[in-house]
Design a protein that fits this description.
Layout: H1 11-18, E1 37-45, E2 54-58, E3 63-68, E4 74-77, E5 79-83, E6 86-92, E7 98-104, E8 109-116, E9 127-135, E10 146-147, E11 154-160, E12 165-169, E13 175-182, E14 190-198, E15 203-209, E16 217-223, E17 228-236, E18 242-256, H2 300-307, E19 312-313, E20 336-341, H3 343-346, E21 368-374, E22 379-384, E23 391-394, E24 396-401, E25 404-410, E26 419-425, E27 430-438, E28 447-457, E29 470-471, E30 478-485, E31 488-496, E32 499-505, E33 511-525, E34 528-534, E35 542-548, E36 553-562, E37 565-571, E38 574-580
Parallel strand pairs: 19-37
Antiparallel strand pairs: 1-2, 1-9, 2-3, 3-4, 5-6, 6-7, 7-8, 8-9, 10-14, 11-12, 11-18, 12-13, 13-14, 14-15, 15-16, 16-17, 17-18, 20-21, 20-28, 21-22, 22-23, 24-25, 25-26, 26-27, 27-28, 29-33, 30-31, 30-38, 31-32, 32-33, 33-34, 34-35, 35-36, 36-37
Length: 588
């Protein structure tokens, strides 16, 4: 599965691990329910219009009896917890792989989240269906809990009663992202399909399933007055052990990103995303971004064959095709200069390569010095210092900030499809190179990249001896929208010093599908930040951009590999500030 080596479990293995009567850890019997019976009517839901009729009888020792749709009752353990006037209890049905999470408010309104294993190709991934209804068989109340966008854009820091510590972001009405701080996950941002349900102005319900990861389901009831939560986790950990527990957590709101729906849209219907298959809704159906199923891994032999092809160098469209690119510049035309990078002290691959797969060209040789002679706005020549022969390459250049020139080109014929993107400041004489190649620690075809720092030598002017561009955390916690033109737009949340997430807007301006990637942040100047990422376990492409916060515009490139060879294309987008999260302190 994505990023981590979670094992695929069979239906039989899951049944064995669950046992006959699994019980959640933590929580307990709920005094207010002991000895009572509940009749729950579910007359609405996220995917289905009607849910099962549930009748509960609560025993005094953490046991209950459930009857579904009038069938004979089944007795099993439950665990529950109360948060203010909201009651949450959870149970799995003995002898099955499914169960219910029931949330009841003080008015008798109910949300029920049914969960089950083995409902998808990856059997360990928890599936869920959400139903809305009420308790009792008397007068039918008018109101119901409902889907909501009222918490879209929020960010939280949580520490639960077991010490599990996370940052959670809601950049979408259908997805969320989380960063695991304790135990740490190496700065990774994890994206997960999610539901957001309004109980009232104070309480809401949030759930997620870590699809493409462990498949674990998490449900939170959140009190916005006290910023406390009570919830449930259900799934299998990295050792395939069952994690089923009830928890409480204390939190803080870290910030609020802007939202972009029409003012009168409250998110009670999310038709764009809750998918229908054929003519009838399917139980548990969600639109889920599964990039590992969209892109085929290439073997070493396929990569080698593809690298022998000419490729598409500034001849095709970007994966984020739009109309908001900066104008190319001929600033470099006619210039001769040398770029010297301090690789002996600053050349660090952001991630190591697979064991036993470090070719000679991937080893760090020491300082890198390249000489350049630029013919015009589209063609340049380069050579390593001391070499006799020049190589000619196509390039494109942008000036995203005054006298900072960003340009990119491949090293045609290189063993690993090397591509360099260079940000050169002709005022400070500092330079940064994002050095990329085909092949990374993850696979033979995805792009690996790193940042190296150095100086510009030209015109006999001595460059700085020690000053260099550098990695930065100044963007961490910030959020921006990016409009590429031609109806392609997204919102970024820079959620750790080493990763970020992007969310694609839906037709009404709501946040929709979300994904995440490791990245590199570099500060060039106060008016220029370089940002590079690789869409790992996705399309494998590397993106590089320089963002100028004064003009709220960026310029950059995508570099990637397919069976047709490598491709290098340009990108550009207009930006808007979307908010900020106070999270950097959690990475100190």
């Amino acid at each position: 599965m994505f990023f981590y080596n979670y094992n695929s479990l069979t239906t039989e293995e899951i049944s064995k691990k669950l046992g006959q009567a699994p019980v959640a850890q933590g929580g307990g019997a709920i005094p207010s329910l002991a000895g009572k019976t509940l009749k729950i009517t579910l007359d609405g839901g996220v995917t289905l219009e009607k849910g099962p009729a549930l009748e509960y009888a609560f025993l005094s020792d953490g046991m209950l009896t459930l009857s579904e749709d009038g069938a004979a009752g089944v007795t099993g353990p439950y665990r529950g917890i109360e948060l203010g006037e909201v009651t949450l209890f959870t149970h799995l049905i003995p002898g099955t792989q499914r169960g219910y999470n029931v949330i009841i408010d003080g008015r008798g309104l109910v949300t029920v989240v049914e969960v089950w294993f083995s409902g998808f190709d990856e059997k360990r991934e928890v599936q869920r269906e959400v139903y809305f209804g009420y308790v009792g068989g008397g007068e039918i109340p008018e109101k119901r809990h409902s889907l909501t966008n009222r918490v879209e854009g929020k960010g939280f820091h949580w520490k639960d009663c077991t010490g599990f510590e996370t940052l959670v972001f809601y950049p979408s009405v259908t997805y969320s992202t989380l960063v695991e701080l304790s135990p740490a996950r190496g700065g990774l941002t994890i994206a997960a399909p999610s539901d957001y349900i309004k109980i009232d102005d104070r309480f809401f319900i949030y759930d997620r399933v870590e699809c493409e990861f462990s498949g674990t389901f998490t449900l939170d009831v959140v009190d916005l007055f006290t910023v406390k939560s009570a919830g449930v986790r259900l799934g299998f950990d990295e050792n395939d052990a069952l994690e089923y527990r009830v928890f409480t957590a204390d939190g803080e709101i870290t910030g609020q990103a802007a939202t972009f729906e029409p003012v009168g849209d409250y998110g009670t219907k999310i038709a764009d995303t809750y998918a229908e298959h054929g003519s009838a809704p399917v139980k548990g159906a969600r639109a889920v971004y599964r990039p590992r199923l969209m892109h085929t891994d290439l073997t070493k032999e396929q990569v080698k064959a593809a690298l022998a092809k000419p490729g598409m160098i500034f001849a095709g469209s970007s994966i984020m095709t739009g109309s908001n690119n900066m104008e190319p510049t001929d600033y470099l035309a006619g210039k001769k200069f040398t770029l010297s990078f301090d690789t002996s002290r600053s050349y660090e691959w952001e991630r190591g390569f697979k064991d036993g797969d470090v070719s000679e060209s991937r080893k760090i040789p020491g300082d890198i010095v390249w000489e350049y002679e630029v013919s015009d706005a589209k063609t340049l020549k380069w050579r390593a210092e001391g070499a006799s022969a020049w190589s000619e390459e196509a390039y494109q250049a942008f000036e995203p900030a005054k006298d900072i020139i960003l340009f990119s080109h491949v090293h045609t014929g290189s063993e690993n499809g090397r591509c360099v993107t260079l940000a050169v400041d002709f005022t400070t004489r500092l330079a940064t190179c994002i050095d990329a190649q085909v092949g990374s620690w993850r696979s033979d075809w995805e792009i690996g990249h790193c940042a190296i720092f150095g100086v510009l030598k030209a015109d006999g002017i001595r460059p700085p001896e020690t000053k260099r561009h550098h990695h930065t955390t100044e963007l961490v916690g910030k959020s921006f929208t990016w409009d590429y033109g031609m109806n392609v737009s997204s919102i970024h949340v820079y959620s750790t010093p080493e990763s970020y997430s992007w969310t694609i807007f839906m037709s009404n301006g709501s946040g929709g599908m979300t994904w995440s990637a490791p990245c590199i942040y570099v500060k060039l100047r106060d008016d220029a930040y370089l940002f590079s990422w690789v869409e790992e376990k996705c399309n494998g492409n590397q993106g590089v951009m320089v963002f100028n916060p004064n003009i709220m515009h960026d310029a950059g490139y995508f570099y990637g590999m397919s069976e047709n060879g490598v491709s290098l294309t340009t990108l550009g987008a207009f930006s808007r500030t979307a908010g900020e999260f106070d999270i950097l302190k959690h990475f100190k």
